[in-house]
């Protein structure tokens, strides 16, 4: 058990201020990670917009390193606590914030960070926002072009609009007549998309039928933050990448009743040229082979009769007996500027002090991290909050 007070410093002295270039109103905290690295997390006001900066002091060489930082940064507040968890991530608790924005993780040695370090050959850190409670697993729907994935997803979204949200992918292909930018796809250029991929903004991407397609981390987070279950319509290569990522999902492969029927549907849709249809059909052969993999897909559905296939899809999502009632709690906890934190195993006890009693009925609570899931490049989910021994959220 250790204790780290919430604090902010008006005058930063010595090396830290020089290296971080913090102005006199910067806020900074330091955390020792392993015996030879100190992480300095500082809030600066760059062009009057407060932002978080990270620097690492390598104590073996006595040199400062500026890491490449992935993920959406938290908006700084005037006081925050930081506590090291299991040598791989730092929990940062923002003061004067409510529980939907106060828990953030700075990952310093997770699998994602190690992967990016090896890729880039430099120090890397990654922010991941902490989310209270369990989110239902996203649904990955895959299958050859023309099999009916989009049709099935539209039916599901129409019947359950408040339950599901579509992950809007990016693509370099040209929009079809009925397609809207930001609704069906984010239509973009290859050079822009390649830069964003390089900057770690994508959960997965693939070259599909000659164009680049990809799921941005934001596309998935936006749906989950809206309290909805995310549906991804992606090809088999993309499904494989998501399987290998930290996103836990349900993987469903949609099969046509026959190859001839697939070809008929693709032609009848009338959205592709003959050359594109031929390319999609060639790729479909390989995808149908890979779709049989029980390692990759949890379920296979044959889309012969549309209504039957849709009923089967609902059944496996547990929706055939009517709409599930959301168990989302409306309770929000406020962490004041001045608070203290202490770690007991996988629980962080946050004491808000007596002066905050009037603001919040809860002046001390425990943040349980024993069931956390996910993490960079997405949100860290599964946080639970208990007040004085009673579970109140999650
Ligand atoms: N069970 C079905 N029987 C007959 N036609 C179907 C069936 N399901 C879908 N279709 C039709 O097949 C065509 C292709 O469907 P859809 O666009 O949903 O395929 P998709 O898998 O999303 O393709 P892509 O991967 O290219 O986006 C559409 O015209 C759709 O109306
Ligand atoms: N790997 C990914 N595949 C994607 C994504 N978005 C769509 N797709 C797949 O591309 C093909 C073709 O789609 P179309 O709209 O041009 O007909 C289809 O199989 C989709 O599932 C993505 O983000 N990543």
Automatic annotation (TrEMBL):
<dbReference type="InterPro" id="IPR020590">
    <property type="entry name" value="Guanylate_kinase_CS"/>
</dbReference>
<dbReference type="InterPro" id="IPR008145">
    <property type="entry name" value="GK/Ca_channel_bsu"/>
</dbReference>
<keyword id="KW-0418">Kinase</keyword>
<dbReference type="InterPro" id="IPR011043">
    <property type="entry name" value="Gal_Oxase/kelch_b-propeller"/>
</dbReference>
<keyword id="KW-0067">ATP-binding</keyword>
<dbReference type="InterPro" id="IPR008144">
    <property type="entry name" value="Guanylate_kin-like_dom"/>
</dbReference>
<dbReference type="Pfam" id="PF00625">
    <property type="entry name" value="Guanylate_kin"/>
</dbReference>
<keyword id="KW-0808">Transferase</keyword>
<dbReference type="InterPro" id="IPR017665">
    <property type="entry name" value="Guanylate_kinase"/>
</dbReference>
<comment type="similarity">
    <text>Belongs to the guanylate kinase family.</text>
</comment>
<feature type="domain" description="Guanylate kinase-like">
    <location>
        <begin position="136"/>
        <end position="318"/>
    </location>
</feature>
<protein>
    <recommendedName>
        <fullName>guanylate kinase</fullName>
        <ecNumber>2.7.4.8</ecNumber>
    </recommendedName>
</protein>
<dbReference type="InterPro" id="IPR027417">
    <property type="entry name" value="P-loop_NTPase"/>
</dbReference>
<keyword id="KW-0547">Nucleotide-binding</keyword>
């Amino acid at each position: 058990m250790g204790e780290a007070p919430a604090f902010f410093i008006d005058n930063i002295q010595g090396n830290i201020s020089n290296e971080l270039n913090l102005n006199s109103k910067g806020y900074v905290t330091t955390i020792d990670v392993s015996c030879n690295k100190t992480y300095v997390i500082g809030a600066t006001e760059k062009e009057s917009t407060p932002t978080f900066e990270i620097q690492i002091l390598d104590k073996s060489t006595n040199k400062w390193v500026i890491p490449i930082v992935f993920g959406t940064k938290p908006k700084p507040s005037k006081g925050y606590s930081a506590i090291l968890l299991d040598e791989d991530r730092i929990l940062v608790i923002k003061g004067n914030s409510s529980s939907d924005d106060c828990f953030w993780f700075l990952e310093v040695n997770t699998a994602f960070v190690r992967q990016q370090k090896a890729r880039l050959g430099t120090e890397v850190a990654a922010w991941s926002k902490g989310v209270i409670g369990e989110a239902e697993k996203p649904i990955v729907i895959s299958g050859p072009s023309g099999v009916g994935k989009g049709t099935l997803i539209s039916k599901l979204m129409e019947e359950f609009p408040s339950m599901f949200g579509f992950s809007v992918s990016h693509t370099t292909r040209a929009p079809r007549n009925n397609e809207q930018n930001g609704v069906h796809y984010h239509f973009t250029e290859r050079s822009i998309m390649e830069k964003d991929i390089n900057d770690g903004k994508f959960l997965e991407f693939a070259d599909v039928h000659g164009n680049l397609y990809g799921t941005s981390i934001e596309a998935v987070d936006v749906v989950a933050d809206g309290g909805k279950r995310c549906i991804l319509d992606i090809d088999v290569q993309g499904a494989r990448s998501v399987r290998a990522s930290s996103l836990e999902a349900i993987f469903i492969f949609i099969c046509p009743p026959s190859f001839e029927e697939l070809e008929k549907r693709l032609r009848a849709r009338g959205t592709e040229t003959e050359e594109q249809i031929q390319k999609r059909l060639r790729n479909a052969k390989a995808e149908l082979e890979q779709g049989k993999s029980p390692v990759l897909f949890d379920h296979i559905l044959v889309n012969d009769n549309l209504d039957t296939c849709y009923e089967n899809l609902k059944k496996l999502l547990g929706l055939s007996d009517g709409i599930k009632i959301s168990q989302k709690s409306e309770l929000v906890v406020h962490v004041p500027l001045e608070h203290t934190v202490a770690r007991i195993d996988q629980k962080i006890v946050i004491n808000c002090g007596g002066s905050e009693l009037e603001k919040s009925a809860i002046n001390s609570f425990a943040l349980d991290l024993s069931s956390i899931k996910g993490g960079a490049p997405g949100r860290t989910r599964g946080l639970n909050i208990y007040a004085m021994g009673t579970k109140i959220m999650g």
